[in-house]
Amino acid sequence: MKKEIIQRMVSGFLMGILIAYLITIITSIMKPGGQYYPTVPTLIDQMGSEINAVLFQLLFSGLYGAIWAVSSLIWKNENWSILKMTIVHFLITSIITLPIAYFTHWMGHNMVGLVRYFLIFIGIYAGVWLFQYISWKNEVKQLNTKIQEGSR
User: Fold this and answer.
1) Exposed, middle or buried by CB within 10 Å (0-12, 13-18, 19+), for 43?
2) Which residues contact 129 (CB under 8 A, 6 or more apart)?
3) Distance of alpha carbon 36 from alpha carbon 103, whole angstroms
4) 35-90: per-residue pLDDT in tens?
5) Domain coordinates in residue numbering, the chain
């Protein structure tokens, strides 16, 4: 189990960096002028330089990915209901990643920013959860069909 946790932490850390980097590219493409925006200006101001802001964001993006990767182990708990796994996973990911979003300035530092962050978070979480649920349900259905065909 320790080996799997470490593997997930490392792969999640790298995936978090990759996703954050892709987001900065997409965001930069959407802005006019052809410039690359590696991070939000408010983070640059807070960190004192662009390189400090990028390094800070890199570290927290990796941490964000590692948290998601390790917390996905919850879905392997066969003794819990899907509802319990969903609630625990949602609470862990939302509570732990909120400070990351705040400190990296991925959200506004006011009540509107907090509400907007949670609405977006819940929307994305629900979408991904629904997609996964449908995928798992189809996989179980296929396995049951194979079992029924094999028992004939």
Assistant:
1) buried
2) 86
3) 21
4) 999 999 999 999 999 999 999 999 999 999 999 999 999 998 989 999 999 999 99
5) 2-78
